[in-house]
Write a structure and sequence with these properties.
Elements lengths: L11 E8 L7 H17 L4 E3 L17 H20 L6 E10 L4 E10 L2 E7 L11 H4 L8 E4 L2 E7 L1 H4 L3 H7 L5 E6 L7 H16 L3 E5 L1 E4 L2 E4 L3 E3 L5 E4 L6 E8 L16 H19 L5 E4 L4 H14 L4 E5 L7 H14 L2 E4 L3 H11 L3 H23 L2 E2 L5 H6 L20 H16 L29 H5 L19 H13 L4 H6 L4 H13 L1 H4 L28
Parallel strand pairs: 1-2, 2-3, 7-8, 8-9, 15-16, 15-18, 16-17
Antiparallel strand pairs: 1-14, 3-4, 4-5, 6-7, 9-12, 10-11, 12-13
Helix pairs in contact: 1-2, 7-8, 7-13, 8-9, 8-13, 10-11, 15-17
Length: 574
């Protein structure tokens, strides 16, 4: 029989949604930030402040969870934080944080939520459903929880769940539905992918109706390795009405006021949602920015060819760390056109980057005098000479080398190992070529509307600074967007000499990779047999290259390296 709702008269509480950027393993930094946001929440008169999944440890911690010394340090930090909150006069606030615990029966780690109150760890809850698909590997690492948790705050009954627990039917949410909770509070580490915000919202609406109570959804923000967390925390009412939403890609403290006597809760601040191009572009930049920050890089270097891929990567880098921290290297060969050289120089000037010219022809001639290479081997030699130069800049200046390949090239193996594939991070590796063009056009439009270099609304720019204006309100030279793409490794070369036109290629790749369509499916989709066989052959034969490519931000449902893992050697071609 359902529990009765609070019957002692009207009860009101304010819940703060602390959407923060954590770093895996940085117990000290994560705890300090948690303390900072708890103070901010208290100043806003919140009785409860909720943080993202595994707040103190960062997320995902992967095999770090298996280290006993780390688990002990994390638990000690939770106790320290509870004591510090009490000492700072915040003992009466209920601070809900995530950490790693231990299942003492099996000695395995647990993905744990704890409530800190009155100087102690007041209550705890362990994640029940441990995802083992896509980017997740929790079932191998953690032990599942087996009970639900309710905490009463000033007469309001709060039920708790962690991320995957609301994605699966049954489990703790179904149990809480029969226990008369007033609010379902969820902490999440839900990685970004294009279109996922709508899926999360629809899910929360279903759960709100299941428990007949509002759902508070707090999500992590920031980049962690090749994952990007977009924030976008929100609250929905029991009937599914959106009550509050935090902005995406920035740290934020949202507020939700709950009244037990109100039939419908009062709406608060609802942040506007970005358009789809801004959303994907911002995800790529935030992934790069946090990868740099968390690995202690202050600048980047990359080859600037004058083409669209290196132009977009350079623009993203300037938005991530400022144009003055970008080293663009033009490495013309005997086949480089004057137009490409001019486009590269214009791009560097637009973003305020360092721009160096390092001709490769003398080095190429020196190699050829010894190796006497022909055909593809001679073409790839040019790319590998450029890779050596990029890494020389990376080493000498202590900056992160960026690879500029896109998903279409990566899919078809249209890159050179140890050449243009060289680097520590690949910001556009999950963007098909046609998407690269779309985002380049969007960035120029955004610049024309006042978003200068470094003016993106991401972690670190919560105040919304507009950035540094670009000359003529253009970041990426128009010619880089409109000209036919070419690697310029031989006279008159175009990408279409070796690949189907990108407009067609990307359609086939989307079906073959992201929707797992086989040959018969692709033919049924209406693609011609020659194109299908060409694309499948290229993709299947390039797996060995993809395994050696740098990591980059996942922004689609199926990203190479994280989601799509096929055998390097396979005879299956259907």
């Amino acid at each position: 029989m359902p529990y009765p709702h609070y019957a002692g008269g009207m009860a009101q509480i304010r819940i703060a949604l602390a959407q923060i950027d954590t770093c895996v393993g940085d117990l000290e930094g994560n705890a300090e930030k948690t303390l900072e946001y708890a103070h901010r929440a208290a100043r806003q008169h919140a009785q409860v402040v909720v943080f993202p999944e595994m707040t103190l440890t960062g997320y995902p911690i992967e095999d770090l969870a298996l280290r006993r010394t780390f688990r002990k340090a994390a638990w000690d930090k939770a106790n320290w934080l509870a004591t510090e909150l009490e000492a700072d006069g915040l003992g009466d606030v209920y601070v809900v944080v995530g950490t790693v615990g231990t299942d003492h029966a099996s000695d395995k780690p647990r993905n744990r939520l704890v409530v800190l109150h009155n100087g102690v760890v007041w209550a705890g809850y362990d994640k029940h459903f441990l995802p083992n698909y896509g980017v997740f590997d929790e079932f191998r690492i953690f032990s599942p929880g087996d009970h639900s948790t309710i905490v009463e705050v000033d007469g309001v009954r709060l039920g708790f769940a962690i991320c995957e627990d609301i994605w699966q039917d049954g489990g703790p949410v179904a149990e809480l539905a029969g226990r008369g909770i007033d609010v379902l509070v969820t902490m999440n580490g839900s990685p970004y992918e294009e279109g996922k915000t709508h899926t999360r919202f629809d899910l929360a609406v279903r759960r709100a109706k299941e428990v007949s109570a509002p759902v508070v959804y707090v999500n992590q923000v920031g980049g962690q390795d090749d994952l990007v967390f977009d924030g976008g925390s929100f609250t929905v009412d029991a009937d599914g009405t959106l009550l509050q939403r935090s902005p995406m890609f920035v740290e934020d403290l949202g507020l939700f006021d709950f009244d037990t006597d109100a039939e419908h809760q009062t709406a608060g601040v609802i942040a506007a949602a970005p358009d789809k191009d801004e959303e994907v572009y911002t995800a790529c930049v935030l992934g790069l920015k946090d990868y740099m920050r968390k690995n202690h890089f202050s600048g980047v270097c990359l080859g600037l060819s004058g083409g669209i891929d290196s132009a977009l990567v350079a623009a993203m880098a300037a938005d991530a760390c400022g144009g003055s921290n970008v080293w663009g290297i033009s490495m013309p060969s005997m086949y480089s056109s004057d137009g490409s050289k001019d486009d590269a120089a214009d791009l560097a000037a637009n973003i305020g980057a360092h721009y160096d010219i390092q001709p490769i022809e003398p080095l190429f001639v020196a190699y050829q005098n010894q190796l006497h290479l022909e055909g593809v081997a001679a073409e790839n030699l040019q790319a590998r000479i450029r890779g050596v130069i990029v890494m020389a800049y990376s080493n000498s200046k202590g900056v992160l080398a960026l690879a500029t390949g896109n998903k279409s090239e990566l899919a078809c193996g249209y890159s050179t190992i140890y050449g243009d594939a060289v680097g520590g991070y690949a910001p556009i590796k999950d963007l098909l070529k046609t998407r690269v063009w779309e985002l380049a056009r969007w960035r120029n439009e955004a610049c024309a509307h006042g978003m200068g270099v470094g003016g993106l609304h991401i972690v670190g720019n919560e105040s919304g600074q507009h950035g540094k204006p670009a000359p003529d309100d253009t970041i990426i030279p128009v010619n880089s967007i409109t000209k036919a793409p070419s690697a310029e490794l031989r006279p008159g070369q175009k990408d279409s000499d070796s690949l189907p036109e990108y407009a067609l290629l990307d359609q086939v790749l989307a079906e073959y990779i992201e929707h797992a369509h086989g040959r018969a499916d692709l033919l049924a989709d209406g693609f011609d047999e020659k194109t299908v066989d060409t694309v499948m052959r290229l993709v299947d034969r390039a797996e060995w290259k993809r395994r050696q490519y740098p990591l980059g931000p996942k922004v689609t449902a199926l990203a190479f390296g994280r989601d799509r893992r096929l055998p390097v050697t396979s005879a299956f071609r259907e």
